[in-house]
Amino acid sequence: MKIKLLLAAFVLGTLFNFGFAQRGESGELNILYWQAVSLLNPYLSGGTKDLDGASLVLEPLASFDPDGALVAKLAAEIPTVDNGGVSEDLMSITWKLKEGVLWSDGTPLTADDVVFTGQYCMDPDAGCNSSDRFNDISNIEAVDATTVKISFSKPKPFPYQAFVSSLSPVLQKAQFATCLGPAAQTCTDENFYPIGTGPYVPVDFRPNDVVVFEANSNYRDPAKPAFSRVTFKGGGDAASAARAVLETGEADYAWNLQVEPEILNGMAAAGKGVVVSAFGPNVERILVNQTNDDPSLGDNRSLYMDGNNPHPFLSDPKVREALSLAIDRQILVDVGYGAAGQATCNLVPGPTDFVSSANDSCLTQDIEKANQLLDEAGWARGSDGIRAKDGVRMSILYQTSTNSVRQGTQALIKQMWEEIGVETELRNVDAGVFFGGDPASPDTYGKFFTDVEMFTNGASGTDPENYLAGWTCDQIADVSNDWLGNNIDRWCSPEYDAMIAELATTAGLEARAELSKKLNDMLVQNYVEIPLVHRGGVSAHINSLQNVHINPWDTEMWNIADWTRN
Fold it and tell me: Which fold would CATH assign to domain 23-53+198-272+543-566?
């Protein structure tokens, strides 16, 4: 009798969908990113909004979970020395693909797709934004249809870079075969409508506005995704995005809510949604242009030129130090971030074992010392109070993306710099343009056609080697790489490069942590960038949205296949 009852329950459940998850049963999901998606190929854009949008479609072999642990995506398991996936001499890593994974067009994922993706990004003419993730790779080969072996030119104690995280997903060879080298930038259809293995497929893409996705009918889990359609809307600002979730319920999820804490708390009180946050690698910082950004230089504007185009005053380390000393970071946190921010002096704020304590003095504003440094360096105040030297006036053009918190931070720092005789002009650029990858636009963060600029970024995983390698000389952003190099500051130090090379061959967590701290300290103590706020990722979702686990170490969309509606 008991067996008959269970069987009857199963039949009823199947007929009426009682307790049995089915693909698309939760209807439509509305995601609001106030920085609109520009394209769906993360290899051609470093903007978080583009990485997140693309991650609904394109998947890596492995990603990081909210605790910073590696989890398999397209791979069957994480290769290690213990399981034989990483060679004992650390010269290779072998990945096994999950069996039966299909692209959204119904064709099988194979090792050839992974090999091709490596060729795509490693081509020096492609302008690949994630080229540093392929550093020290000597060969990528398909051992068989589901096995990929990556060989290195030197031992790699942390070999989880290429094809790991949303920065480095696998592309379909059949679709992108004609997009190698300089053609990568011209493949509009491929970059807007990639064929993927992820839970969703793009069906309507309007750049810098909205992307509409539908459930991937060939996704490997027949019960996922729960939503049949996802509208990934961009535009507006952080405050309006927060309001759409927390007060009106028009959106299900809103990202990057860089909103004044008192305003955000007031919205959350409406009870329609919940604010979620997590502290990971991200730091709001000021980038200091080491090159001359004078428009009169024409094609040489903001070019490194082998060190022969220095900034007229920011190339003076005492000036950069004075700018940092003049900033009261705690005020920036109190006014703009609240519980979602912590004052910091480091570019690597976590994990804990990797955090340096050598720079903590920056937590105390010191206007007196800042003025003293500028006096000693010969930067004298004029009759208007602005400092100058040898006919060079200390006037800074300070840009960032359009956002109320960032504009508030700019205004505060402008006042602080005025106290040390630095004239500051503020400029803000629409976030979709600022973080876009258009090589023709003069307003992207990569072009850096101003004296200083401000935004947030950080390592994509728990090991910061790849992130710190972004300041090596060969990563300098310029016209030759379509301004997609990670070294946007145009700072070059052979000593730093040598230390990065040492980190690449250093094994053991403790040793890697100590070397990473030294690299962080070199950047901070040379004031290549000025860290301001350790930012917690702050987003919000409507109460009915379930299984959302905000992830500070990878894309916030990392587990969107698991999202459901209650």
Answer: D-Maltodextrin-Binding Protein; domain 2 (3.40.190)
CATH superfamily, domain 58-192, is Dipeptide-binding Protein; Domain 1 (3.90.76.10)
pLDDT tens per residue across span 463-501: 999 899 999 999 999 998 889 899 999 999 999 999 999
Residue with tokens 């930012």: 535
Kindly indicate the confidence band of residue 10, based on its pLDDT and cuts at 50, 70 and 90. very low
Q: CA-CA distance, 437 to 357, in Å (whole number)?
A: 35
> Could you give phi then psi for residue 455, rounded to 5 degrees?
-165, -175
Strand locations in 99-222 (E): 137-144, 147-152, 200-206, 210-215
- Which one-letter DSSP state was computed for residue 159? -
Lookup: tokens for 135: 């550093």
Contacts of 114 (CB under 8 A, 6+ apart): 61, 95, 97, 140, 142, 148, 163, 170
> Residue type for 28, please?
E
Q: What is the mean pLDDT of the chain?
A: 93
pTM (two decimals) = 0.71
What is the C-alpha separation between 483 and 439, in angstroms, rounded? 7
Taking the domains of the chain in order of start, what are their residue ranges?
Answer: 23-53+198-272+543-566, 58-192, 279-535
Task: Tell me how far CA of residue 13 lies from CA of 16, 21, 100, 131, 237, in angstroms.
Answer: 5, 10, 28, 50, 44
- The residue whose two tokens read 């000021």 is 286
Architecture of domain 279-535: Roll (3.10)
Query: Which burial class, exposed, middle or buried, applies to 449 when counting CB atoms under 10 A from its CB (0-12, 13-18, 19+)?
Result: middle
**Angle at which helices 404-418 and 238-246 pack, to 10 degrees?**
140
Angstrom distance (rounded) from CA 228 to CA 28: 6
